[in-house]
């Protein structure tokens, strides 16, 4: 089956969402990205729609069933999988799935690791607990028994040997306080309290 | 046979010689052979051998039944407890397995069954000398555990794997009442713990005072805080303790203390492997590596439930001796893994997350030349285009780990070439389970189905007994399995195949097939019928979201009376005739009476 066929299939494929939405856009992007993978399955980068998990475990997903019959009725092509979550797929025990999930967010909290230069170990804090930067900084000061001082846009944490920094979603290290609090909370992956010249350097670079 | 003052008749194998030995009674001739047989059968431990021996003749059947002390029940509904206890009178150790494996993935309704209670009462009546109980995928309550705790004074070993329905109270009862307890292993089971506001029962404190007989204590899945002081005390007074698997509520400084208390440990589940919240920053942290150095017999490490990778170097002193390492709950990348794995020359079993990437697998392949079992689990379970591990990692492992026997590999992309390479490089493979998370995905290089890859596995891996397939597969893949998979006992199929012919190939071609689980594949009634000659040889058949009709199942139920066909349907009126789930198994007894409403058992 060649690319043209696949494109035609895409046009007729059943999908959640209105036609002419940004789903089309993503298709273009994904085609560029995955030039070697031309199957209907890999037609966009969008995350599958996450339906709320049923409390009652249902024996088999209706979607899977109907997909099954679709496959056999007419096309010789593999049917695109529904964007809905398939029950029991991939085959990972819920015990394992739940455990991994616990690690990333416990009961809605946003846990990030906090390290401090010179200290041989790390801590973990829940960002959701704090209302804003002042509370967070105070907590860090208490936790690590040091003074961080006040943030200023130009000079960072001048007057302190320490600067709280964080790694954001893109992997960049930023000074804590550079972005609005809400943006910080959602983009912060981990915190690091830098010491000494490195800290001052970062402050000035901002 | 009577005594007399005179010498006893000359019997072969008679215990008496002559004259005044009349107090010693010779057994009757036919019993002599049985006694010899019983003594000989004592040496037969493998259940398949015992099954064969029991078929020779009636007296062998009887002798075997009297001497079997380890009883294995592969399906709790295949025989009634009464039938089992009537035949085997002197059982000391019992294993019972309940739900089918697909229950782990939420495909079976809640309350489906596999209740332990009927077994519990039968055991309490028939085997007061019971020492060991191993249960897998069974549903048992606190009352069941309490019954076990109180009914067997010699009870030594309780192993619960993937079980549910019980809570802390049940565990506490076992701890308190089983004075000779050596093994308490709770593995991947769902344990009811109290809600946050309620007090959690301190089950560790329920172990009696004084020295214990404990050799193995695994409570990783008991998801609530433990009384650490009591735990430390327990470990300190358990000189025989070799295996200890902690839950995620035990912090690394606590682990440190426990390890120094029990340097004889061989298997450790490390708990969280993370600092606890109340450790103040100024405090000196102990030298965690010293604990790992102190446990000189350590061969198996697992846990790392909440790991801070910066702590990983603490395990270095143990790496050279490790044969088993389970990092499958630890989100570590290649750079964090490498310094560890490069020291693990003796490793035979490795479970990891795909966060280590193909690069991490490369490091494994370079060092772990003795690797027998590898499992790579996904961090991200969505169907994505690319993932951190791929055919590159699989091929590299196949080149480096030639002794590989068992592999479970989750990935987003895989090529036939890599699978074929593994089939040639790893001829000792017994278990090959590949899960390409994106369903119906072909080989990304060739756009071909994955038929040839799996075909090569069954063709080249002559010892293969367990196979799980995935990716885009046509009937051809099943043709290969039917042709070459002569030793295959367990086969897992999902979203695969084109037509009835696929399943026919397997049912007609695989004489050793015992466990067949299929979901979301286009196999229908004709395919099912092609297995009639073989169903009595199987432990079970599972087919969900396929194309089976109730009529066909009814037909089969009538044709094969000792087959239980459970049709599970969650809704009454449906668009088509197809049933949702068929779970079929051989059974010597009447259909069970504990099934929920959505289950119909056809006869």
Can you put this structure into words, describing what you see?
Chain A: Its main location: nucleus. The complex is a heterodimer of chains A (about 210) and B (about 600). Chain A is about 35% helix and about 15% strand. With about 210 residues, chain A is an alpha+beta fold. Chain B has a 21-stranded mixed β-sheet. In chain B, strands 5-7 form a two-stranded parallel sheet. In chain B, strand 12, helix 12 and strand 13 form a beta-alpha-beta unit. The radius of gyration of chain B is 27 Å and the shape is globular. The two termini of chain B are about 50 Å apart. The N terminus of chain B is likely disordered. The interface between A and B is large, with 57 and 71 residues.
Task: Give descriptors for this structure.
heterodimer; A: 206 residues; alpha+beta; 5-stranded mixed beta sheet; 7 helices; 35% helix; B: 603 residues; alpha/beta; 21-stranded mixed beta sheet; two-stranded parallel ribbon; 20 helices; 30% helix
Secondary structure elements and pairings:
The complex is a heterodimer of chains A (206) and B (603).
Chain A: H1 3-12, H2 22-33, H3 62-73, H4 94-104, E1 111-116, E2 122-126, H5 133-144, E3 162-168, E4 173-175, H6 181-187, E5 188-195, H7 197-205
Parallel strand pairs in A: 1-5
Antiparallel strand pairs in A: 1-2, 3-4, 3-5
Chain B: H1 29-41, H2 47-54, H3 58-67, E1 70-73, H4 81-87, E2 93-97, H5 117-126, E3 132-136, H6 142-151, E4 157-161, E5 164-167, H7 168-177, E6 183-187, E7 190-192, E8 216-218, H8 228-236, E9 243-246, H9 252-261, E10 267-270, H10 288-294, E11 300-302, H11 316-319, E12 324-326, H12 334-341, E13 349-353, H13 357-367, E14 373-377, H14 391-400, E15 406-411, H15 416-425, E16 431-436, H16 451-460, E17 466-468, H17 475-484, E18 490-494, H18 500-509, E19 515-519, H19 525-529, E20 540-544, H20 550-559, E21 563-568, E22 581-586, E23 599-602
Parallel strand pairs in B: 1-2, 2-3, 3-4, 4-6, 5-7, 6-8, 8-9, 9-10, 10-11, 11-12, 12-13, 13-14, 14-15, 15-16, 16-17, 17-18, 18-19, 19-20
Antiparallel strand pairs in B: 20-22, 21-22, 21-23
């Amino acid at each position: 089956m060649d690319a043209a066929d696949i494109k035609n299939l895409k046009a007729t494929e059943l999908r959640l969402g209105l036609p002419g939405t940004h789903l089309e856009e993503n298709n273009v992007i994904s085609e560029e990205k995955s030039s070697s993978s031309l199957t209907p399955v890999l037609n966009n980068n969008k995350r599958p729609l996450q339906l709320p998990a049923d409390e009652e475990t249902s024996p088999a997903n209706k979607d899977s069933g109907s997909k099954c019959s679709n496959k056999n009725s007419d096309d010789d092509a593999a049917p695109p999988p529904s964007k809905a979550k398939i029950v029991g797929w991939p085959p990972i025990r819920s015990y394992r799935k739940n455990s991994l999930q616990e690690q990333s967010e416990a009961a809605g909290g946003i846990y990030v690791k906090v390290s401090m230069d010179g200290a041989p170990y790390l801590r973990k804090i829940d960002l959701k607990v704090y209302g804003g930067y002042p509370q967070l900084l105070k907590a860090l000061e208490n936790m690590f028994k040091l003074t961080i001082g006040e943030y200023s846009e130009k000079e960072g944490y001048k007057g302190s040997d320490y600067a709280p920094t964080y790694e954001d979603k893109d992997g960049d290290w930023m000074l804590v306080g550079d972005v609005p609090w809400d943006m910080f909370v959602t983009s912060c992956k981990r915190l690091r309290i830098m010491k000494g010249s490195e800290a001052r350097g970062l402050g000035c670079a901002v | 046979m009577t005594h007399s003052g005179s010498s006893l008749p000359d019997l072969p194998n008679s215990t008496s010689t002559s004259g005044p030995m009349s107090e010693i009674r010779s057994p009757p001739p036919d019993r002599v052979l049985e006694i010899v047989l019983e003594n000989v059968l004592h040496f037969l431990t493998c259940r398949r051998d015992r099954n064969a021996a029991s078929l020779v003749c009636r007296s062998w059947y009887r002798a075997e039944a009297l001497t079997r002390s380890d009883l294995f029940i592969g399906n709790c509904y295949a025989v009634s407890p009464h039938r089992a206890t009537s035949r085997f009178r002197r059982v000391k150790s019992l294993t019972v397995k309940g739900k089918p494996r697909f229950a782990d993935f939420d495909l079976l309704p809640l309350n489906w069954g596999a209740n332990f209670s009927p077994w519990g009462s039968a055991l309490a009546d028939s085997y007061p000398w019971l020492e060991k109980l191993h249960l897998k995928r069974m549903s048992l309550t606190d009352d069941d555990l309490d019954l076990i705790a109180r009914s067997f004074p010699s009870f030594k070993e309780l192993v619960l794997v993937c079980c549910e329905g019980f809570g802390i109270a049940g565990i506490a009862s076992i701890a308190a009442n089983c004075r000779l307890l050596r093994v308490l292993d709770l593995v991947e089971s769902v344990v009811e713990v109290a809600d946050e506001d309620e007090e959690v029962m301190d089950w560790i404190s329920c172990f009696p005072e004084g020295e214990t007989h404990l050799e193995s204590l695994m409570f990783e899945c008991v998801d609530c805080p433990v009384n650490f002081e009591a735990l430390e005390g327990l470990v300190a007074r358990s000189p025989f303790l070799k295996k200890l698997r902690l839950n995620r509520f035990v912090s690394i400084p606590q682990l440190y203390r426990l390890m120094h208390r029990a340097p004889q440990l061989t298997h450790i589940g490390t708990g969280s492997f993370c600092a606890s919240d109340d450790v103040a920053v100024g405090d000196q942290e102990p030298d965690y590596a010293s604990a790992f150095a102190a446990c000189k017999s350590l061969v198996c490490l697992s846990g790392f439930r909440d790991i801070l990778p910066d702590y990983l170097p603490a395990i270095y002193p143990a790496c050279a001796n490790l044969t088993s390492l389970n990092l499958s709950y630890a989100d570590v990348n290649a750079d964090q893994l490498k310094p560890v794995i490069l020291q693990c020359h003796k490793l035979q079993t490795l479970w990891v997350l795909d966060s280590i990437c193909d690069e991490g697998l490369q490091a494994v392949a370079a060092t772990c030349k003795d690797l027998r079992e590898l499992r790579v689990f996904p961090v991200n379970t969505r169907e994505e285009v690319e993932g951190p591990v791929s055919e590159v990692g699989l091929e590299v492992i196949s080149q480096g780990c030639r002794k590989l026997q068992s592999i479970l590999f989750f990935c987003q992309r895989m090529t036939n070439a890599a699978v074929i390479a593994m089939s040639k490089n790893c001829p000792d493979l017994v278990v090959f389970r590949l899960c390409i998370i994106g369903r119906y995905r072909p080989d990304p290089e060739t756009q071909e189905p994955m038929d040839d890859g799996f075909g090569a596995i069954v063709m080249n891996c002559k010892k293969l007994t367990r196979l799980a397939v995935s990716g885009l597969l046509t009937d051809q893949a099943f043709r290969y399995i039917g042709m070459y998979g002569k030793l295959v006992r367990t086969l897992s199929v999902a979203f695969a195949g084109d037509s009835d012919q696929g399943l026919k190939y397997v049912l007609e071609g695989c004489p050793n097939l015992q466990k067949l689980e299929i979901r979301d594949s286009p196999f229908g009634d004709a395919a099912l019928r092609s297995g009639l000659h073989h169903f009595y040889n199987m432990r079970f058949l599972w087919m969900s979201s396929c194309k089976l009709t109730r009529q066909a199942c009814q037909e089969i139920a009538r044709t094969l009376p000792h087959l239980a066909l459970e049709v599970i349907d969650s809704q009454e009126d449906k668009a088509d005739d197809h049933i949702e789930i068929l779970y079929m198994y051989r059974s010597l007894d009447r259909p069970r009476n504990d099934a929920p409403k959505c289950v119909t058992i056809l006869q």
